[in-house]
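pipeline stage [seq->struct] | target=Beta-glucosidase | organism=Cystobacter ferrugineus | residues=567
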Amino acid sequence: MAPAPRPAPSSPPPLPALPLVVPVPVDALAEEVERLLSGLSLEDKVGQLMMVGIGGRAVDGTVEALVRGHRVGGICLFKHNISDGQQVARLNQDLRGLLADGIPPFLALDQEGGNVVRVKDGVVVLPGNMALGATRSAELAYAAGHAQAEDLRRLGFNMNLAPVLDVNLNPRNPVIGSRSYGDSIPLVSELGRAFVRGQQDAGLVTVAKHFPGHGATDADSHRALPVMLESREEVLAQMEPFRAVIREGLDGLMTAHVAVPALTGDDVPATVHPRVLRGLLRERLDFQGLVLTDELEMEPIAQRYGVGQAAVLAVNAGADMVLVPWHSEKKREVHAALLSAVRSGELSASRLDEAVRHILATKVRRGLFAPPLPMEERLATPRSAEHEEVAHRIARAAVTLLRTDGEHFPLPSGVRLGVITAEDSLGEAIRERVPGARVLDVPAWPSRAQRARMRQRARALALQSDVVVVGMINSRQLELVTLAASLGRPVVLVSMGLPYLAERATAARAVLAVYSYQPTATEAAAAALFGEIGTPGRLPVGLSRLTFGYGLEVPRRQQATAPPAPR
């Protein structure tokens, strides 16, 4: 008999108020900011407004000319800048050294967990926000933020562009999806608040994103301008996660390139709209922290305004820093445009000083002017084993059983097991338990020629198996579920991506959602498949036939041995 669904969850318990971390008294902070501001030239102030990306994995003449030449306020690193923990720690140290005689830079990255991970070596890699949403645990969200912040600081980072606070209200959203905690405004608010508190308590500058919200749209703002079509009341409701963390001392916000006609009456993107940034964010929500734009080289902004003019418009609208990560000529264009705008009066000296004050206040408050521990000492200190355990706790608590026939989950023993998966760590975790399992690794995004070969090999594997486990990341693997089932083989599906898709796998006898393809999530999936752990997770989004909060509880097998130690 299939187990009964659990009742819908209650709201997570409230957290204590998030303290605004101020190393110095407020009056002394303001005094120090004014002292620093008075020592900056016009060129220095303009440089502070720029958050730039760099090429390569080491400081060279080009990087020095950009960072030191423009006296930039921050550097954001991406995957192409990072090979391992020691290398990126050295890079961060050298980047800071370029500005040793001036204002220390923000050293930032996007480290969200899930499918947005820039560095893996030397840091905890979290399963991602939607997995956290399935746990319903503010305690785990806090622990995740705190552990991640400590690991990132150990590598020399002082800022993280996370968490994502968008509410994923549109299942067809192409850019948020599992980066969101879910489609419940109270859930996103509570877990976002806990995660922010964890990061900031560990001393990491935290920039939440994407204000005023990107989760109800159906366009990718890298390529087209999303438009929020909801009413004014609905748009304001989607901002509650941002409002919740603003009230308690959030360091910074990143803007979204979305139009909000219900608030503004036009299709001007929020990033450059005074009504959104100055009127709504600064005045109505009383946010006095740092405002950073999303990438200005994204097409909806760059094509409509040009990157240089967009930077001027954004700062005039209320942004403090502009993110220009990719092309060298665009960074030069932005610097020249901002400098020219101040000299011509298009950008007032008072607005420039206000922006720089927000930047300096964040740097002073978070202790960026204090010399960090020597890199060798930081790296020689062993990482806390508890940090990796946090990721495993999240993954195990997130496992959600959406369907079972009562016979094939947990997997029966003594059967020929076949595994077809778009993430090889799932196959590895299953083979650790059943060395004789046949595993076929398939590409997550196969070409047409690859699909034909993939189907052939999947058919052969299924015919040699009594039960087939399919590990799915996206719709390309759905056909493999149907193929195996058409051969009369029971299929158990492990959904490692968005749960909306899992609902379409109607041919599967059992469907398990883990919301992530990171190794901690696939290890938890394998443990659940063999009855080593239960299935405590609950849907963080509503599906067409399953409600928010749904999940089938299957306890661990009494005779099962303890799950293997995390790898």
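stage status: PASS
auto-comment: The first strand starts at residue 50 and ends at 52. Confidence is low (pLDDT under 50) at residues 1-22, 559-567.
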